[in-house]
Amino acid sequence: MFLINTIKNTLFKVDVRVLGLYRILFGSVLFFDLWTRLSVIHLFYTNKSILPTSYILSSPYKILPFTLLPAFNQAWEVELFLYIGLIACLLFIIGYKTKFSQIVASIVVLSFHNKVSTLENGGDMVINNFIIWSLFLPVGLAYSIDSIKKSLKRNKENSTSDLNNYKFKNTKIISFAYFACLIQIAMIYFFNFKTKTGGTWTELTSLHYFFELDSFLTPLGYWAKEFFSQEFKSFLTRVTLMIEMSVPFIIFMPIFTKYIRSICFIILLGFHLCIGLFMDIGAFSWIMIAVDALLLSSLDLNLVKSLFSKIHGKPLTMIYDSDCGFCHQIVRIIKRIDVFGKVTIHGNEWINTNDPKFDEIRKESILLFKDSSPQKIVSHHKAFFHLLNRLPFGFLFGWLLLIPGISHLVNIIYQIIAENRTSISSYLGLNACGIPMVEETVKKELPHKNKFITIGKYAIVNITIFGLLIANIQKSLVVNEPYKSKYDFKESQLGRKVLRYFRMKQNWKMFAPSVLKKDVILVVDLTTVKNIKIDPFTGKEPLDVESINFLSEDINYGQFVRKFMKRSVENKNTKLINQLDEWLQRPILDINGNRYSKAKKYKVWKLTQYSSKPGEPPKNIRKELVTEYVKKETGKPKNNRYKKKNLRPNSRKNTPKR
Q1: pTM of the entire structure?
Q2: Angle, to 10 degrees, between the axis of helix 451-479 and the axis of helix 493-502?
């Protein structure tokens, strides 16, 4: 029995507050993932982009991944679809209509990820997997508007004593989906470690080569490149391997689980923050921080709660018109947000022993005073200022109420509400002002749930989770080294189809087997028929390929453009180059959506800088002509691709053989 309880508590039981925190972090990552794609809609997601719907539908796969984007061809349609996703993400973050908003946000994000898989990176893979897993998690039970609404219906506080006695129940649930999430986290770290077998990892030079990739570096990354010594970079490389090697095992430790996972989360938080701040690798670092939050426990949240409680001010007392149904409803909501227990409530039973003027003021405003100084009473906008400072993170925007113009506006709005609170209460079906509250004696009976339907639903959901989990494990063993080469693992046909449909890929090889040793960008030197020079990838004039310096130029074009550039010239991918040629020969639409006339001529250059070894100076940039085009007056336009000559600075001229 002890063993069963240990397994249940460590692998399947989770605090609903942890799920609520995970929802907020995960929803934020989904929001910013969509927001970053807004800037590349004209390049990749419309029917006039480099990769139109016709190209996507020509995929050789029998099963196309799930996406609704082929139904939207115009830029405004794609933008509208994306904004719907952004709104759904915001609703998901605050927990309003949580499951519905979660489904809508998931559909939009998956549609963008799966339409143009050319832009896919490790962060997209993690997001896709946890979008599916999260659908099975009850993430709206805490820190959400839905949980507040549910609590308001379940608990009826009819007096100020009831309000002051309200306590949020720290509920824990048993969830098989939570166990699947732990397995998924473990697989990500485990296979990322197992695939790091290349020379940069065995020689502990990976961090050195990280910082040689100028197209990946952030401004802070450039600082770290110069500030960190080679010995420290080698140390960080070793730490990276140790973290990825140990995490899959220590999160399943059956003893001291809560404490070990807490330490593990702190280490992973620092690990991914460093990666995200030093390098622009898309959403990977941020989504990993979000999913690693599932390692937290009630112990961690209680500790954080006690720490944050100290910066939210001293306890105070609030007096309100308890006969006003609308006012009472607002106060009930405030008590549910008051997670630090900073606010004590009093109604009309409070007796004023201070200045008699407050007997009149209390009719049109709430009154507040600190418990430590009850003689200093405040009202109107100052009362709201102090109240917000006691609520979670209210101090971030509470100071706005002290700005003269805003404070005056708040007082006007509050006065309008106060004058009409009787009609507002009546309209909402609440107790009108002046009519004392009466305790409810009749409780509404909850609708009877069919036991067999509940059991059937529970069984179907968990069987689905189990099937997906098995399919993911099989896929991981089939596509990741060394198991791909050494063993003859198989995967079920159904599992393969389902994972391919949702693109729940499992080939975890971030910077594996070795870190890249070269930087590659494309420069489009295009001149329109109106003699305007433009690079559609940047919306600016083309870089001078003869004098470019990766250190001095900003060549970090972002994750999506960088991925397309790299993959379009990888192994001389003629299919993507053909698409690029077709797009450049149409009326130009740059990354910002600016329109230009057709191209008179253009050259697409591939610029490559190989990383130098530790202690060596930067190497020269190699220039290679990928494709060019010249519009002729008559006949077909001239179009050449991948000319054999490799243009380099200071290259020697060919001399005739003797």
Answers
A1: 0.90
A2: 90
